[in-house]
Amino acid sequence: MNLIGLSRAELQAELEKLGEKPFRAKQLWHWIYWQGKTNFDEMTSLGKPLRQKLQESSYTLKRPEIIREQNAADRTRKWLFQFDDGQSVETVYIPEEDRGAVCLSTQVGCPNGCLFCHTGSQKLTRNLTAGEIVAQFMAARDSYGEWPSPAQETRYLSNIVVMGMGEPLLNYENVKKALLIIMDAEGISISRRRITLSTCGIVPVIPRVAQDLGVKLAVSLHAPTNEIRDRIMPINRKYPLEELMKACKQFQEIGGTRQYITMEYVMLDGINDSDADARELMRLVKGLAVKFNLIPFNEWQGCPFKSSDEKRIKRFSALLEEHNYAAPVRQSRGQEIMAACGQLKSTRPSA
Ligand code: SAH
Ligand code: SF4
Q1: By alpha-carbon position, which residue is closest to atom 16 of ligand 1?
Q2: Whether residue 172 sits in one domain with residue 152
Q3: Which sign does the torsion angle of CA 63, 64, 67, 69 carry?
Q4: Is the pLDDT reported for residue 177 higher than 60?
Q5: What distance in angstroms lies between residue 109's CA and the mean position of ligand 1's atoms?
Q6: Residue 351 pLDDT > 90
Q7: What is the spatial distance between Cα 214 and Cα 303, in angstroms, rounded to a whole number?
Q8: Are residues 127 and 254 in the same domain?
Q9: Are 37 and 132 members of one domain?
Q10: Residue 298 near ligand 1, beta carbon < 6 Å
Q11: How far apart are CA 28 and CA 3, in angstroms?
Q12: Is any ligand 2 atom within 6 A of the Cβ of residue 197?
């Protein structure tokens, strides 16, 4: 049994089964999530007898197996991680000058089938457990040797984006549990302000993110009207734009309007990138505190879309910025190793 992913209460319950006092759970937590140890024998403060018991038990602190690691010229790193049942996901680290973001996956595949998304072309196999979500981050830290948890300011792995494979709000209980573990100040301790969760718009769950977690929200908007969105994002037929905007409003009522929502907008040539689309988009988000993030479409084999060209994207961005919306263009990272937005999929290296 892997202990990674247990809540504090669950960890305590496991130790109680071994006849241990509650304070031992706090110590063990520290060794697992602050120190990042994988070997019980190194957990010196636990005392010899307990260490021995743990060694002899069936408990592990195993990370997923690394099936493949790729490094891009821009230093983006991507792993294909495999879990015990043979299922696998991709996880990405995107370095900046003196910090960086780990992009976590939440499902094997995705049920939503957005037409422009490589992950969406892989049907959902299963949800990841809380432990599998946390373990992706821990394995990334292992890879950079960033243990014990350094001071916030000096970390390379400083931020988390829940923007990998899958739709986090369709696996909400596990995502929530994982993020609560990751945010715990006596462990991995990534602050909620450094975590951004991206959703395609699972309306009923959006307010709960503000209530339960207080992390930042990004919404895969990608279209100014239902007509366009229905065509490229099937989920829109279930949760149309009016309802999505209402849920965003609620998110901000709970989280406060200083909590800007990032509206992600993938620029698709001839589909959603006209001047009229930009104007319609601003009408749509009226009353919300938002910034836009324009994403040049990243190509993948078999996808018919093309990215808007640079000039069109600049013009689209300028229109939004004229009206005082922040609308930066997201720089594509790790494209040549298929690590950029929307390119992830659990495909095996070919022999
Ligand atoms: N399921 C969640 C989390 C995935 S985030 C969501 O959809 O928000 C991945 C981000 O990359 C989303 O904004 C997604 O819409 C975007 N994306 C998907 N395919 C893309 C592509 N081919 N090029 C650029 N961005 C893409
Ligand atoms: Fe799923 Fe998000 Fe890709 Fe849509 S964009 S298919 S919701 S991962």
Answers
A1: 342
A2: yes
A3: negative
A4: yes
A5: 13
A6: no
A7: 35
A8: yes
A9: no
A10: yes
A11: 10
A12: no
Q: Is residue 350 part of a domain?
A: no
Of all protein residues, the one whose alpha carbon is nearest to atom 6 of ligand 2 is 120
Residues 3-60: tens digit of each pLDDT:
999 999 999 999 999 999 999 999 999 999 999 999 999 999 999 999 999 999 999 9
DSSP run (H or E) holding 231: helix 226-232
**Catalytic residue IDs:** 90, 341
Residue 67 CA to ligand 1 center (angstroms) comes to 24
CA of 298 relative to ligand 1 center, distance in Å: 10
Same domain for 97 and 48? no
Indicate which ligand has the atom closest to the C-alpha of 168: 1
181 in contact with ligand 1, CB cutoff 6 A: no
| CB of 242 closer than 8 Å to CB of 285 | no
User: What's the token pair of residue 33?
Assistant: 């999530």
Is any atom of ligand 2 closer than 6 Å to the C-beta of 103? no
Q: Is 298 exposed, middle or buried (0-12, 13-18, 19+ CB in 10 A)?
A: buried
Q: What is the CA radius of gyration of the chain?
A: 21
Distance CA 333, CA 103 (A): 12
Q: Which domain holds residue 174?
A: 65-337
User: Residue 169 C-alpha to ligand 2 middle, in angstroms?
Assistant: 11
% of residues, the chain, pLDDT over 70:
99
Q: Answer whether 110 contacts ligand 2 (Cβ < 6 A).
A: yes
Atom number of ligand 2 nearest to Cα 119 = 3
Q: Is there an atom of ligand 2 within 6 Å of 11 CB?
A: no
Summarize the confidence of residues 174-195 as an average pLDDT: 97
Of 332, 339, 330, the closest CA to residue 72 belongs to 339
pLDDT band at 350 (very low <50, low <70, confident <90, very high): low
